[in-house]
Amino acid sequence: MSEFVIRGGRVLDETGERFADVAVRDGEIVAVGPDLSGGRVLDASGCVVAPGLVDLHTHLREPGKEEAETVESGSRAAALGGYTAVLAMPNTTPAIDCASVVRDVQQLARAALCQVEVSGAITVGRAGERLAPYAEMAELGVRIFTDDGAGVQDTRLMRRALEYASGLGVTLAQHCEDSALSEGTCMHEGEWSSRLGLPGQPAEAEELMVMRDIALVRMTGARMHFLHLSTAGSVAMVAAAKASGLPVTCEAAPHHFTLTDACCAGYDARFKVHPPLRTDVDVAAVRAGLADGSIDAIATDHAPHPAYEKERPFDEAPPGMLGLEYALALAITELGIDLARVLALLSWQPARIAGIADAHGGPLVAGRPANLMVFDPEATWTIDASGGASRSSNVPYAGREVRGRVRHTIHAGEPVVLNGEAQR
Amino acid sequence: MKHLLSIDDLDRSEIEGLLALTDHFVEVNRRPIPKVPALRGKTVVSLFFEDSTRTRLSFETAARRLSADTMTFTASTSSVKKGESLRDTVETISAFGIDALVVRHRSSGAPLQVTQWTSATVINGGDGWHQHPTQGLLDAYTIRERLGSLDGVRIAIVGDIKHSRVARSDVAAFTRLGAEVVLVGPPTLLPPSLVGWPVTVSHRLDQVLEAVDVIYLLRMQHERMNEALVPSLREYTELYGLTAQRTERVRDDVVIMHPGPMNRGVEISQEATAHPGAVITDQVANGVAVRMAVLFRLLGSESQLDVLRVAD
Q1: pLDDT at position B308, please?
Q2: Of A148, A296, A301, A376, which residue is the catalytic one?
């Protein structure tokens, strides 16, 4: 089906909003306007037609942990969530820290239901000791480097990494966590960790590294993206750094604007994540940052883990939760901001940070690649515990009623999701 | 009451009910043959993922005195060493057909998780830093035995509160029974937040020593030295140990308690253990009776309480 018309919807992109049909042929948008025809009709009545979503933070687990997720299953979850591009994190086994592993993942990505961009590690094996070969990975299209799962602890090494990266025009992304304050912990340190008898990490474990890295950005002039900010202090510091003109961007995850550390009360490890679920005050700050533009993107930190891993005792279970199929609905339901702002956070802003704005997140005009999604912003549904298309089911939102549901997703002109069903 | 996981799950009347029931079993334990048929045919399994000979023996003694059958599963000699998950272990043991699991685990919350995977009654035998509810009950019983009631009693819990499941259970049990609790320790050994804790705090034992009715000393673990929580055991003893000198200053009718095992010369001196107010062995003895009461409350029936009375 290389030719079709998305009919009856309201087009919403960075340029504004208008009622229009969108005609697609051979992977491209060929026309946007009233009463278009040509090929099959995809019903968009009552729906918003928008650029596909872009996730800056996806754990696809391949290679190494295929029982949790594969590039294929993760990309199917992404497509069902309205994403046309995801950035695969490099904390696989082996880590994506050299050209050969990048090539392996790019090879797997050819069968994916969305664009899979590959990120590379900042240090060899994510061990925090030696710089990874950025140039050979950049040559293959890698634009973002991160040791996500851990922060780069060595300040001198981080300085060098920023300096070296700036020469190549690539972006470093930091998982901010000072391990001296976080090692051996499994949740936010505070009222709940004290009551539950669980070792906690303070907000300062994140904030100290945010503070350090802002100083390093000021020193080196290099670009930096802050992953999954979770504390009020982090949001404020990055906002101030942006206001002072530093080249920094940041993201927040759906769970950090939806859930608090009180969720850990039942020792259910589906609520265990790094950085940990924080307090009401932090959730409010993340929400405010998303609303006022301090935070540039909503990124899922989609982190699949098999059930038997999440059934381990809370302190032993691996951190992380699913997100790709829930982010749009949670943003619409929880944030109380208009749809244009929701889409900015989920589509065109992350597309720019990822360096893929030529194909994703851009305005819907003739000649652009057809990476689109169609969603009903009023449709309500209840999140179930199944995990959807993911091979895992670590869903912390089960039973939650949300608003906003993806109807169709078009990736490179291919309708990969039609009427909420993945087509392959 | 199906399980006993945390003192927080019990209200004052439930705690008092268990302490009243304990009186019966203290009496049973004084008999020439301290055994009653209350739980005949029931099977109680000790599922211990962390070494604790005294708690395990106390539970097993309690179960046997109630005529229950007992089985022991300890991690060091078991399939856990071969990598079996907690869930698989629990489901396997439950498949034998058992009535209760006493769970001791290094991870807070593990006994609560176990309840999802078994139809048996689960008793928390100590989980991580979280709770040790039978210890809380036996400590409350011991104070009640000495002082008649906990209402208005001033209790200092001294030492490593942060990492102590005993402290969390004691705070809940003592305060629900009307006692006033002051936590005494350096800030490094107190929980990071005390929001919601019905306690006061002191960083100097000397400030509260003469004002309290009960001094409860927690075990100071040597590995805390490696985490920069206190500079040295010597300095800890200087500030928080119930030394010979401090023992001379306590009230005449003070009650001195310790959950064991003691580090003599660190948190507690010979003079303190020899003080007439020291009830440390009473705690151990009461532990068996309290655990009998808990097992009976969870597995027995009130009609069997008559059986128990007929026996004397």
Answers
A1: 64
A2: A301
- Give the model's pLDDT for residue B53: 87
Mutate which: A183, A193, A194, A196, vs B, most B CBs within 10 A: A194
**Residue B95, amino acid:** A
CA dihedral A139, A143, A144, A147 (to 10 degrees): 0
Task: List helix spans (H) across A51-110.
Answer: 71-80, 99-109
**Which residue segment(s) compose the domain that A317 sits in?**
52-354
In a domain, A103, yes or no: yes
**How far does the CA of residue A313 sit from the closest CA of chain B (Å)?**
6
- In the 8-state DSSP scheme, what is residue A199? -
Q: What is the pLDDT of residues A377-398, one digit of tens each?
A: 999 999 999 999 999 999 999 9
Contact check, Cβ <8 Å, A312/B86: yes
The predicted pLDDT at position B310 comes to 47
Domains of chain B and CATH, by start: 7-130+284-309 (3.40.50.1370), 133-279 (3.40.50.1370)
Query: What are B's interface residues with A at a Cβ cutoff of 8 A?
Result: 85-87, 105, 107-110, 112-113, 127-131, 162, 165, 168, 191-197
The H or E element containing residue B205 is: helix B205-208
Task: Based on the fold, state whether residues A97 and A171 are members of the same structural domain.
Answer: yes
State how far the Cα of A146 lies from the Cα of A128, in Å rounded to an integer. 11
Q: Range with the lowest mean pLDDT among A332-346, B79-93, B129-143, B205-219?
A: B79-93
A347 contacts A362 by C-beta, under 8 angstroms: no
Sheet containing strand A414-418, edge to edge, reads A16-19, A10-13, A48-51, A372-382, A401-411, A414-418, A421-422
Torsion-angle region of residue A221: left (phi > 0), alpha (psi -120 to 50) or beta? left
Look up residue B187 and give its DSSP letter.
Answer: G
Domain shared by A177 and A220, yes or no: yes
Q: Is the pLDDT of residue B78 over 80?
A: no
What are the E-state strand segments in A121-211? 144-146, 171-174, 187-188, 200-201
- A376 and A265: one domain? no
A311 vs B: CB within 8 A: yes
List CB contacts (< 8 A) between A309 and chain B.
Answer: none
* A136: region left, alpha or beta (phi > 0 left; psi from -120 to 50 alpha): alpha
Mean pLDDT calculated for residue range A355-375 = 98
Same domain, A194 and A234: yes
The CATH number for A153's domain is: 3.20.20.140
- Contact A266/B at CB under 8 A: yes
* Residue A43: active-site member: no
Instruction: Test A311 with B85 for CB contact under 8 angstroms.
Output: yes
- Verify whether the Cβ–Cβ distance B108 to A316 is below 8 Å: no
Looking at residue A343, its pLDDT comes to 98
Percentage with pLDDT > 70 across chain A: 100
pLDDT at B312 over 50: no
CB B220 within 8 A of CB B159: yes
Domain count, chain A: 2
Q: Do A190 and B192 touch (CB under 8 A)?
A: yes
Q: Are A118 and A86 in contact (CB under 8 A)?
A: no
The beta-carbon neighbor of A198 closest among B108, B131, B194 is: B108
- DSSP conformation letters of B14-37: HHHHHHHHHHHHHHHHTSSS----
Strand partners, B158: B184, B217
Closest CA to B283 of B58, B126, B32: B58
Mean pLDDT, residues A215-243: 98
Q: Decide if A194 and B193 are in contact by the 8 Å CB cutoff.
A: yes
What is the per-residue pLDDT across B25-47, written as a single tens digit (0 to 9) for each?
999 999 999 999 999 999 999 99
Q: Which residues from B are below 8 Å from A195, CB to CB?
A: 168, 191, 196-197
